[in-house]
Design brief:
Length: 58
Amino acid sequence: MSPRTGRPKAEKPKTLEVKARIDEEMNKRLVDYCKRNNTNKTEVVRKGIEMVLGEKKE
């Protein structure tokens, strides 16, 4: 039997989708940030979520 082909399975597959509505100005700022930092919107959102969840409760 031949070995399995294709991409290996991810350790933590990203199967959930989160949507948010933003205005034109925020989108422009986000796109500019992504260009300056050579990243994409998804990574920026993930980092933002990590920042918020990492904050200590008062």
